[in-house]
Input
Amino acid sequence: MNQRGVRAIVTTHHGALKIFAHNTPGVENGSMVFDSETLQPTYEFRLGVPGASYALEIAARIGLDPQVVDEARQRMGSEKGQLESLISDLEHKIQKQEEIIRHLKLEEVRLNGLIKLYQQRAEELATHKRKLKQQAIEESEAILARANAAVEQAIKEIREKQAAREAIQASKARLQQEKQALEKERKKIKQPVPSKVPKQREKISPEEIAPGVTVWWRSQHTQATVIDRPDADHRVYLQAGPLRVRVPLDELEVVSAPPKKSAGGSVTVIGSGPVPQQVDVRGMRVEEALARVEQYLSEAILYGWEEVRIIHGKGTGALRKAITEMLRAHPNVAGFEPAPVGMGDLGVTVVKFK
Output
């Protein structure tokens, strides 16, 4: 078939054929990814890597007689068993590497967001500095012009009145008044511009930090909202624009207390629009979907939802698996499960907050 150029998909558990595919040009190994820890299929296809057989492991897990399983393993032979073990170990390592890559890409999204936020703040500060400088120049020019006008007027009056004593004294008095006025203007220009940054304190108490509190993030020169209480390492999760970050307490200043709770117990976020009780990430790439879901969860928590729905679709299952891993590690998620049958089932995940 290979020599005739026939395109075919061949399924097999025979190790010899896997070796044949590896060594033969025009033939390529492939496998469906299988979670080695849960022994569940992920419905992902991986090209170039032969699949491992988990038949004996599954048989043992579902309760088949251990003697039967052991005898079957012995009949396989040591060479075949070693090959299957090697493939299984390789597949497990690939899954771990892919998980690390997913986390790194998510961190890359966060870091890129922080970089953009920092650049935006730097541009705003530079623009503000230019405006202040231009304003100072314009005010100085206005003061100088007014002083010149006062001097010229005094000289004109002295000449017109032929330098009479009264005229000279009056001109001197007028010049003295102008001098005092100029001194006041000069002091105003020298006064520092009031800073929007709260005055720095030596230390912030963990008791001051609660969900909904507005804080000043000193290192990034921006305001943010607290999402959760500080952890044992004195770090706290913040929502800064579209970013959700974990920051040490010593980088923060309390700006305002948390918003009051409504009668229903949910937090009212002043100035924010309504947050829907579900988010749809179907069609997005995994990294893009994770970033969107994380942002949405932060918004939903601040809005006061106790339960939300994440619509990710069924597809290959890769998106659902990535979102599940993220939810499992989320500090504010109490639990999650697939939606009931008829309401999205495996294509929708229902999330409950703490």
